[in-house]
Design goal:
Layout lengths: L1 E2 L2 H9 L8 E12 L2 E9 L10 E2 L2 E3 L10 E2 L3 H8 L3 H19 L1 E2 L1 E2 L7 E2 L3 H11 L5 H8 L2 E3 L3 E8 L8 E9 L21 E7 L1 H9 L7 H10 L7 H6 L5 E2 L2 E5 L2 E5 L8
Parallel strand pairs: 2-12, 6-10, 11-14
Antiparallel strand pairs: 1-16, 2-3, 2-5, 3-4, 3-13, 7-9, 8-10, 11-12, 15-16
Helix pairs in contact: 2-3, 3-4, 6-7
C-alpha cells in the first residue's frame, strides 16, 4: 500500500469519475554489466513535462501509428511476443517497435544493427541526432529509418518484464509493457564505451547509469523521485547476474498491475497488487 503523491492527490481531488482510456505504451529497462551486477539507465524528466514531471524513469512512451508499419526484424516474432504480453500479434509487434524507437529517441541507444552483426548500441553524431528528432516529431517511422540504413531491429535483445496500467483517476493513463534490454558487451560485439555516447533527448534534463539497489536506496531516502512501477521494477531487478538478464526475464511470469484506490483511516491510499484477471 502506498500514499498518494502530491500530484496524484491533486488529480484525485479534481476527478469527476470519468475514466480516460489508457494508451498502449512501452518502457525499456536498459541494462549493462557492472562487475558482478548490473546498472540501469535512468532519465530525469523535465520539470515542464505534462506527465511525470521531475520523475526518474526508464526510456519509453506511447505507441505511435507508425509503429504498426513493417519493420526489418530479427528475433522472436509477433506471435511469440503476443503470447508473452497476452495481446493481439499486431499490438505485440507495435509494442516492440515502440520500445526500440523510444529508446533511440530518448537516449541514442539503438537496439538494431546490420544483418548478421551485433546491435549498434549508443550512437551519436549529427546524422543520428537528426534521425532521432525526425522520429520524435513523427516525420519518420522506425521501419523506414532502419530500411534506409540497411539495419534490422533486434527483438532478441529484448525480453518482457512487467505490465502496469495507470490508476483510473489519473487524467493521463497508459497501459504499459515493461521490457528489459541488455546492451551487448565487448565480448559479444558491443563497445566498451557505451556511456560516452549517451545523449538524452528533449524530454529529460539528465541521465545516468546506476545499480538497481542504489537507485532504490536513493528513492527511499527521497533523493530521487520515481513512480511506483519504476521503483517496483528496480526492486525486482535486485542483484541480477548480468549474464542472465534476458534468460531470467524469459522465465518471469508477467502479471498485470493496476494500482487501485482504497481508504485507510480516512486517507486515500493506492494498493499495488497483481490483477488476477490479468495474470
Amino acid at each position: 500500500m502506498r500514499a498518494l503523491s502530491i500530484t496524484a492527490a491533486a488529480h484525485l481531488a479534481k476527478w469527476d469519475g470519468t475514466v480516460v482510456p489508457a494508451r498502449d505504451a512501452a518502457t525499456v529497462v536498459v541494462v549493462r554489466p557492472a562487475g558482478s551486477t548490473i546498472e540501469v539507465l535512468l532519465l530525469r524528466r523535465q520539470a515542464s513535462m505534462a506527465f511525470a514531471a521531475g520523475m526518474h524513469v526508464f526510456p519509453g512512451g506511447a505507441v505511435h501509428p507508425g509503429d504498426h508499419g513493417p519493420v526489418p526484424w530479427l528475433g522472436p516474432d509477433a506471435e511469440a511476443w503476443a503470447q508473452r504480453w497476452r495481446c493481439a500479434p499486431e499490438l505485440a509487434a507495435a509494442l516492440v517497435v515502440a520500445a526500440v524507437r523510444e529508446t533511440f529517441e530518448e537516449t541514442g541507444i539503438l537496439l538494431a544493427g546490420p544483418p548478421g552483426a551485433a546491435v549498434l548500441g549508443a550512437v551519436d553524431g549529427a546524422d543520428w541526432r537528426a534521425a532521432r528528432a525526425a522520429l520524435e516529431a513523427g516525420e519518420l517511422t522506425l521501419g523506414r529509418f532502419l530500411d534506409e540504413r540497411g539495419l534490422v531491429l533486434h527483438a532478441d535483445r529484448l525480453a518482457a518484464w512487467a505490465h502496469w496500467i495507470t490508476p483510473e483517476f489519473e487524467p493521463r493513463r497508459f497501459d504499459t509493457r515493461f521490457f528489459v534490454a541488455a546492451l551487448p558487451t565487448a565480448a559479444d560485439g558491443g563497445r566498451p564505451d557505451e556511456d560516452a555516447a549517451i545523449r538524452h533527448g528533449t524530454e529529460a534534463d539528465s541521465s545516468f547509469w546506476i545499480e538497481p539497489a542504489a537507485a532504490v536506496r536513493a528513492a527511499e531516502r527521497s533523493e530521487i523521485a520515481m513512480m511506483a512501477p519504476t521503483l517496483a521494477t528496480l526492486r525486482d531487478l535486485g542483484d541480477l547476474d548480468p549474464a542472465a538478464v534476458l534468460s531470467g526475464a524469459a522465465q518471469r511470469p508477467i502479471t498485470t498491475v493496476q494500482p487501485r484506490l482504497t481508504v485507510v483511516d480516512g486517507q486515500p491510499r493506492l494498493t499495488i497488487e497483481p490483477d488476477p484477471a490479468g495474470s
